[in-house]
Amino acid sequence: MRLMTFTTPAAGVLPRLGVEADGLVHDLPALADRAGASLPPDLLSFVQAGPAALEAARRLLDGPRPAGAAHRLDEVTPCLPYRPGKIIGVGLNYVEHVAESSRSLDTDEDLPPRPVLFGKPATAVTGPGRPVLHNADLTTQLDWECELAVVIGRTAFRVSEEEAYAHVFGYSILNDISARDQRRSGQWFFSKGQDSYAPFGPVVVTRDAIPDPMALDLSLRVNGVIKQKSNTRHMLFPIARLIADISSGMTLEPGDVIATGSPSGVGAGMVPPQYLVPGDTVEATVERIGTLTNPVVDAR
């Protein structure tokens, strides 16, 4: 199931929860209202409601679909799916990215023995089509990182790798925008946590629709030019290991997002380095999910 938050010209700015299927976006709250059913009105509440909400949505989609409860895909505007409670970023999780980072960002050239974790605040999150803010007072090294985002569906604490996928709701895309010149004594929080530094979306695809998330092509373009191209099978620490490691000391809650790391091809690793500037358009693509597109604008 491909879940999205969207608006239409008729509905104005009020976001709606929908399912994309067969070139249409089905308005789930509208279907529920007309069927006399109860369904969470927004995607975060839907994720938090668990399997019961998914089953209710499937029943609605399998039943009659009254006129006015569906829109052509080209009639809707995708919005931020929802604002996660927390985003856990994973650094240096592709072998080739470890190598390029050691050359250009002074990180260790040895492969990390455990996942390298950092946080991105909720205020960094922005949606598809929304601007990435370039503040020249703070950075001249604004960089991109296309990443598979794992959406947690069940509370996870001290879960094993074997249990990990049972706690996954689905998958999306996150562009881990980074101001490379704002790393502070080895700490990445400000470098990666400024407003608009976590574009997220455009859809959340449920776990059952992606049977093997460790075999997905991912790529990134800037102004139509390919900068990154890889596959999730090249992760150093796979998804199950990440969930087990993070949940060993931190409770993962429904709606939380794990950004699973970037492959090589970041701007800092180019010779010479290349960075985002106002006027650029950045497109992050993950197989079976779609493309997350954001313009870069001057923040001043």
Task: Give descriptors for this structure.
300 residues, alpha+beta, globular, five-stranded mixed sheet, 17% helix, twelve-stranded mixed sheet
Description of the structure:
Helices cover 17% and strands 32% of the residues. With 300 residues, the chain is α+β, with helices and mostly antiparallel strands. The strands form three sheets. Strands 1, 2, 3, 4, 5, 6, 7, 8, 11, 12, 14 and 17 form a twelve-stranded mixed beta sheet that branches. A five-stranded mixed beta sheet has the order 9-19-18-15-16, with no helix packed on it.
Q: What does the radius of gyration come to? A: 19 Å
Please report the distance between the alpha carbons of the first and last residues: 40 Å
Q: How many DSSP helices?
A: 6
Helix content class: 10-25%
Task: Write a concise synopsis of the structure shown.
By secondary structure, this protein is an alpha+beta fold. It has helices at 28-35, 43-49, 51-62, 95-104, 189-193, 239-247, and strands at residues 2-7, 16-21, 24-27, 70-72, 77-78, 87-91, 116-120, 125-126, 132-134, 142-143, 146-152, 168-175, 178-179, 198-206, 217-222, 225-231, 257-259, 281-286, 290-298.
